[in-house]
């Protein structure tokens, strides 16, 4: 039985669905996942300041170019961790994605490549994107192709909700990583970065995510069934408690900023405990939504409900794999993940 999956992901919306399928496959198998993203090397087409950066500061150039890869992979890892699936991630700069995928699978010791078809149909020569077909032909490994064609509104809406959850989870994992590094090395964590994390965790759910859940998903589910009323009421109370938790964390960050050398270790330890407690609260909340509310919605909501929910959440599209209307949160998410990496 397969024990180690390589899952190549790209920057399309279909990657969200692919990651979900991969995690669903790996979990019952007891397998682990290596997520992989191939970044095209655009150096040959660079001009002006970008080319100067590549030549004079290659490390800074690589950090900038690979920033999107870190964002994509951090969210993929968050999806796997949420289901208890062991995972890691890799990226490489290459103008030949299929070749890079094959090399990554072999280097990681994977025994299965799980990748998307991107919904192509027709004859065999047109059935898969060229990279998928090349991996099938040349990898020397079993390749399982997940169909990710056109999705109905329900699937699109659920994918957006889950993707937004993964963004929040990725920020929490990054914050715990920053604090663990500071505690082990005796260093002061990056205060500006932690303030940016707080701003993201506070502003994005309050401005976009929670209002859409309550006004669209929760309200429409209540109209179709009363079976989830108690759970929905608890989730709404948790939305309020979320703000209280973040206020506690903000006080902790500012206390750390003001602490003298003698008190810093204890203040840092308390902040670490509070961040871990909030992470458990957040993951429990998202687990309730994904494990109880979304299945109930799939069972009870009508097509017209899903069309409205899909349209509402599609306006967010940030932070997600695609472009979105609200670029402020996308830029903030990028800053947090890349500075914490």
Structure description:
This is Nucleotide-binding universal stress UspA family protein. Pfam families: Hemerythrin, Usp. Belongs to the universal stress protein A family. The longest helix is centred in the last third of the chain and has 40 residues. 70% of the residues lie in helices and 9% in strands. About 5% of the residues have low confidence. The chain has a five-stranded parallel β-sheet with strand order 3-2-1-4-5, sandwiched between helices. The chain folds into two domains: 143 residues, 3-Layer(aba) Sandwich (Rossmann fold); 188 residues, Up-down Bundle (Four Helix Bundle (Hemerythrin (Met), subunit A)). The chain contains 13 helices and five strands. It is globular, with a radius of gyration of 21 Å. It is of the alpha/beta class.
